[in-house]
Input
Amino acid sequence: ASLVGIVGGIMDSVELLITPCVHVGGLYVQPDWVTGGIQVQARVRNYGATDRAARMLATVSPAVGGEILDTRGWEQVLPPGESLLETSVSVDRHRLWELNDPFLYRVAVQATVDGSSLAGMSTRCGFRDFRFEDGYFRLNGRRIFLKNSHHGASAPAWGLIPSDPDFLRRDLLNVKSMGFNMLRFIARPPQPYVLDLADEIGLLIYEEHYAAWVFANSPHMAE
Output
């Protein structure tokens, strides 16, 4: 017997955003757990027909609130369309993200055009490193024994989108309270807010895509 899931249609919430002509439309950050530096990539969109001069500002602060720890500001000419901008910020004496101390930082990027601060974007991140090395799994350089369960990324009776939005949140809290330190989402990625919660409570995620198993090899696999 085989287990086959049929998936289609709208998979998550839908938003309609009203934004200024110039705004930050995407943000990616890569923290360095050794140095405390954070590489920042921002996709800034200019929907106008001409170049716009912008004052860009990147900041980092503790995710739960507090003073700004570092800033980077620069002048940027934004041509029509989308521009990929890169910069970096850093945290002195940074705290590592640990299973029992899942400390997070918030990185934000803002654009100011003609004296007006326009739509920016922020994201959270943690300083951490997870790898398999010399025969062992290691978190931040220390050997870790994985205690893992798995989850179908869905809720009983309701499928992918539970009628109670808090159902999957309670699921992860129960997993953490039972002593697991990892959760495998089997053959289906979890909703983004579930990944955010795992970051908050100190839970590792083993995530699979829809075609991770069951599917037979295509004749084009070798290509």
The mean pLDDT is 89. Helices lie at 167-177, 192-201. The first helix runs from residue 167 to 177. The radius of gyration is 21 Å.
